[in-house]
Specification:
- The protein starts with 6 loop residues before the first helix and ends in a 6-residue tail after the last strand.
- 32% of the residues lie in helices and 25% in strands.
- The protein is of the alpha/beta class.
- The chain has 5 helices and 6 strands.
- The longest helix is centred in the N-terminal third of the chain and has 16 residues.
- It has a domain of 117 residues: 3-Layer(aba) Sandwich (Rossmann fold), CATH 3.40.50.
Length: 198
C-alpha cells in the first residue's frame, strides 16, 4: 500500500460499493393466481377463492338460471374482522366475473352522481345535439341486491396463531324482499412461529 493511503477509508468505499451492487432488492413479476402465503392475514388467494365460490354458486342458482340476465345492485361487503380488508376488491372481482359470464347485468350505483350530472349537462347546457341527448327516467331498475359480510376469529397460543375467516353473501329480491340465494366460504390459516425470530 502506498504511503499516505487511508486504508479504513478505502475499505469503507469498497464495502459501500459492494452493498450498492449486491444489497438491492430484486423485483420480478409473479403469477397473480399463485397461492400466496406470505402471512396469515387476508390476501390475494383468499380473495380469489371467495370470488370463485360465490360466482360459481350464484350462476347455478335458480334465481339466476330462471331469469333472463337479471339486473343486480351490489352493496359493499361489511368487514366485521379486526384487520383492514379491502372489501371493494372482493365485490369488484365478483361483479367483473359475473358480467363476463353474460348471464347478469349490474347497475352502476356508485356512479349515480356522475350520471345525474351528465344527464343534466346534456339537458341544460345547450352544447349537446338533441338527437344524441339521453333522456332522464330511462335507467333500468335492479331486480336483486347482492349483499355480504366477512367475519373472522383469531386464536393464539404459545407459538401458534390460527385465523378463521367466513364470508357470507345474499341475493335479495328487491320486489319481494326475500333472500333468493345465499352462500358462504370458510378459510382457515395458521402460522407457527419459529423458536427464534418471527
Amino acid at each position: 500500500m502506498k504511503p499516505g493511503t487511508n486504508a479504513p477509508a478505502l475499505v469503507l468505499v469498497l464495502v459501500l460499493a459492494c452493498c450498492t451492487c449486491g444489497c438491492r432488492s430484486k423485483v420480478r413479476y409473479g403469477d397473480a393466481t399463485a397461492v400466496e402465503t406470505v402471512t396469515e392475514d387476508f390476501g390475494s388467494t383468499d380473495l380469489q377463492m371467495i370470488a370463485k365460490k360465490m360466482v360459481d354458486s350464484l350462476l347455478t342458482s335458480p334465481a339466476i338460471r330462471q331469469s333472463h340476465r337479471p339486473v343486480l345492485l351490489v352493496s359493499s361487503i361489511k368487514n366485521k374482522t379486526a384487520e383492514h380488508i379491502d372489501t371493494k376488491a372482493i365485490t369488484d372481482k365478483i361483479r367483473t366475473t359475473l358480467i363476463q359470464s353474460g348471464k347478469v347485468q349490474f347497475t352502476a350505483a356508485e356512479t349515480r352522481p356522475e350520471i345525474a350530472d351528465e344527464l343534466a349537462y346534456q339537458r341544460d347546457s345547450g352544447y349537446v345535439d338533441q338527437a344524441t341527448r339521453k333522456e332522464a327516467g330511462r335507467q333500468v331498475g335492479a331486480d336483486f341486491l347482492l349483499t355480504g359480510e366477512i367475519t373472522s376469529i383469531t386464536k393464539e397460543r404459545d407459538r401458534l396463531k390460527d385465523v378463521y375467516y367466513k364470508i357470507t353473501m345474499n341475493l335479495v329480491n328487491l320486489e319481494t324482499g326475500l333472500i333468493d340465494w345465499a352462500e358462504e366460504k370458510e378459510i382457515r390459516k395458521d402460522r407457527k412461529r419459529p423458536l427464534v425470530g418471527w
